[in-house]
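Worked Example 4.2. Read the sequence first, then its structure tokens.
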Amino acid sequence: MKKSSLIGHTVEAYDLILRDKHPADSVLDTFFRSHKYLGSHDRRFVAETVYGMLRYKRRLEWLLQGTSSEASASEDQRRSLLVCLLYLVVYCREEIAKLLEQCEPDPEEKKLLPVVLAEAKARNERFEAASDGGLDKVTRLAIKLSFPNWMIERWLEEYGEEETCAMCSALNTQAPLTLRVNLLKTDVEGCRRALEQEKLKTEATKFSPVGLTAHRRMNIFGLETFQKGFFEVQDEGSQILSLLVDPKPTSKVVDACAGGGGKSLALAVLMKNRGSIYALDTNSYRLDGLRKRIKRSGVDTIRIRAVEADHLPDDLVGTADNVLVDAPCSGLGTIRRNPGTKWTVTPETVAELHVKQLGILTHYARCVKVNGRLVYATCTTMKDENEGVVEKFLVDHPQFELLVPASILKRYQLEALGQEKYFRLKPHVHNTDGFFAAVMRRKE
């Protein structure tokens, strides 16, 4: 497909994502299904360019401020085209003249675009040289790293400048494609060999004992190994979180916010397809996908239940050995996968989630029996959603006490990941999504 057409499709997809409330990957998937004529190389260009535009949206839009585009690019589509072209120039190192020649602009744009892109590129060079002054520290970092000011300000307070910069830089990269091997069907080496026969090379993950990292991205859901249930797609951090729950094969486990059921499936494997797992969620649609995954994986110990937000089934109150509350959160630890999250989460979102998370944790803590364990987890890096929730819960519920994660992870030779009182995984340190977890025990 011609470059001009590819850019047109990219701008169309980008605008759809900005208008839609769903995650970028979901919107792109729908977009590609309605544009089936796009080949694999075309889809790759559109997807990678769209994700790049989302990652660097703040900086790209700032670079365009004050250029000749201000008087002529008020239309959203025109603005998105400029963001797209500027991304290709600044981050993909494409030459302006060659790019515009491939784009075949109309006569009006043919005069404007070279000027606008040249002005923005020059401004970027001044910014890199720290000569485009007049910016306070937070704003300069927010533009440099392409994040909202409020996020940078919050992280500077919580983590300091060095770690904030490292974390944001890591969140601006593409996440690896990580698989969790289903030990009910095969072993890690057997899965690796089977995937290699299907032309996908993988290697063992650094931390998870049941993980494989793919050397390239592809549509793995069409692979025979996937259809046989040899693996599930799951971030390495999420795999380790399941280890932290640490159920025995005979345990009764409640996965309180099961969603698509990835952790329920991982827990079933840890339990050797014994015991019982209750996968609960208030959204029955999300649970529908789990039913298909259960059948493919060969698991028969997961009980699916759609529940009301304010109701607990009587047979679960005070009876569970392990309860996992993987709470709804802002998802800021998963920005590598869904960079559009940067532009939808607000301080008000975090404040509202804190209240909701505390309510959910309090609600499902009632399922834990004496000496049972409660694990609260999120995939966010905001302390208000993490220890802010747990510490308030512990004050209100003195019958629960914190356990040091290392005491559990040592059986998997992962105690180095859990030396502090809370469990954390960081994109810039562990190359996983950002995860937080607290392990608690209900005392006598």
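Now turn to a second chain, presented in exactly the same format:
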Amino acid sequence: MDTKEMTTEYRLAHWAQVMHDRKQSGMSIKDYCEAAGFHENMYFYWQRKLRESACSQVKATAADTEKTLVPQGWARVEASAATVPSCALPIEIGVCRVLADANTDTELLARICKALASIC
């Protein structure tokens, strides 16, 4: 890590603490910034920087674990084309695939699709 990255990390950590303290104080952003002696534009600038940093970390983590990411309580099952019945209806949401046939419980299928849509 070079000096520039260390400085950025330090500033992000500092502003994360400032925002935490503001939230704990119960004051409005305007009042808190005035009391702390800085303009609220600076507060919003660093809030945006913190969000961008968090999003880039999430994207990097998601890219690393995209193929191994399985929701808690679920198991990844790989099916080959030979095991898929010809009368099954494949439903794909994101990278997840569910096979439904005439015997599939429609209420369960609806819940599964809703859960998959919320995570994909």
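Notes for the reader: The chain has a mean pLDDT of 81. The chain has two domains: 3-65, 81-119.
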